[in-house]
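[recover] target loaded
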């Protein structure tokens, strides 16, 4: 089935700017944020292993609980992109995503400093080579071939994707522009019904 698609963007509310920062483990090791922009599975067992800032090894043992620092206080949001654009969501949002795309994501429980409610970092495993070069507005490093980029662009001013490549998918990142987290109109409808706060939907398929 074909859907419309939307890039998720942080929506800053008028009544306060709640902003989250880096993610650290029990021993205050800072988790390397680039981990969450790859399609490589996170090793959860027998121990959690992730790249750590300042550690030259590829992966290190890290220990729960993971904590997200509140950089700027404000009303808590259901959906947040932290300082490094890593999505941090409530349990309600996580369950909504899992209802359609449980195989396409991994989640890590995190504590948001000062809050008792559970939050989760979302790691998106599905990445699609779906940029529509003709309809996107970007500063390309090298000429695209057959309407597909050959390298990451210097900048992406307007992202457009080919919805046929994404057909049937409900959440994914975009190859050559992994900063973009995209969802289907079906998942958007569920999030709309839940009145999820903190998120703005930017059309990328129309």
């Amino acid at each position: 089935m074909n859907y419309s698609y939307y890039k998720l963007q942080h929506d800053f509310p008028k009544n306060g700017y709640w902003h989250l920062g880096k993610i650290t483990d029990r021993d205050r090791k800072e988790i390397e944020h680039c981990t969450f922009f790859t399609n490589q599975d996170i090793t959860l067992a027998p121990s959690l292993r992730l790249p750590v800032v300042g550690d030259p090894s590829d992966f290190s043992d890290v220990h729960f609980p993971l904590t997200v620092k509140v950089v700027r206080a404000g009303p808590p949001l259901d959906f947040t992109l932290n300082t490094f654009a890593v999505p941090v969501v409530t349990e309600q949002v996580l369950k909504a995503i899992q209802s359609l795309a449980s195989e396409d994501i991994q989640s890590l429980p995190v504590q948001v400093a000062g809050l008792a409610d559970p939050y989760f970092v979302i790691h998106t495993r599905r990445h699609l080579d779906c940029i529509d070069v003709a309809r996107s507005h970007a500063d390309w490093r090298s000429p695209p071939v057959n309407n597909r980029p050959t390298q990451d662009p210097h900048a992406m001013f307007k992202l457009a994707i080919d919805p046929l490549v994404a057909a049937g998918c409900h959440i994914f990142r975009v190859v050559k522009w992994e900063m973009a987290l995209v969802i289907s109109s079906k998942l958007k409808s569920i999030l709309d019904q839940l009145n999820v706060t903190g998120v703005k939907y930017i059309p990328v398929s129309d």
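[recover] notes: The CA atoms of residues 9 and 37 lie 15 Å apart.
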